[in-house]
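S.,

Sequence below, as promised.
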Amino acid sequence: MTVSPPHRLKIIFMGTPEFALPALMAIHLDQDFEVIAVYTQPPRPAGRGQKLKNSVIHDYAAAQKLPIFTPSSFKKDPNAVTQFQSLNADIAVVAAYGLILPPAILAAPRLGCLNIHGSLLPRWRGAAPIQRAIESGDTHTGITIMQMDEGLDTGAMIVKKSVPITAATNSQQLYDQLSRLGAELSLATLKNLLHGEPVTAQPQDNAAATYAPMINKQEGKINWQETAELIDRKIRAFTPWPGGWCVDDGGRRIKIIGGRVIPLSNAPLSSPPLAQPPQYGMILNAQGHVLCGGESCYQITEIQFENTRAMSFESALNGQKIQVGAILN
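The prediction came back faster than expected:
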């Protein structure tokens, strides 16, 4: 894939959430490129009043007076396809857009469609690659810039870059890091095209592919019979949404915002002693240690009750919002 300089690339940008914003801003602010249209999801109901709310991409494009298109489907709207084709773009850049692109859309730009994907393909194709990487205990992930085809994240890979996942990394932190990296790599790829440098694409190994299905709210429910390591990965993977959550013995829903795995042998005995034998999900002491499966222990450091702000475990204990010996389910 090459393009003869000095041609100012005409780009269609397609994205919806915060993840896509750094890439759009980087491309739009670069004098080598012209963003001729921005495609994003239609406004959706949000908040308690369920008022229609634009995506962050929509708001940025509107502020910059860029042409905005919000089709709800390409497959069901042939006029949307015709409109896209009429733009005569050199290339489209896609980042977490949220709509399936049919062949007519993929073929419309002269140089096709590039996708910014939040994993090291072919691992974690699909809707939630960042969360699934943390949940599965991966030690690294990254960004892949790929040439889109008709499959689900199956296109040939142009460039990949890896980042580590530490024992403290949560999804929000990784999301922000990969968002910035995606902007950097997509811009570099476009620069290579602009300056006539050859851009090669390597096919994916389909046999090595894994799938990252969309997250649902129920997945955040903590099972304290699992090991503390698995619980910790789930909490970090589902922060900020849907959060790692449980209910106390009074039926209140509680989010675990932060914590860490510690050896059970390091959990001090409660003073005064517990009123009943320890069981899974029990808060063992004033330090917030919770008994987990596999003779392991998770220490809650930050907690959030319904309709309140997040607070430290110590503050929750001192405010009598939670007690030693309580059982979390």
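Helices lie at 21-29, 56-63, 78-86, 103-106, 129-135, 171-194, 228-237, 313-318.

Coffee later?
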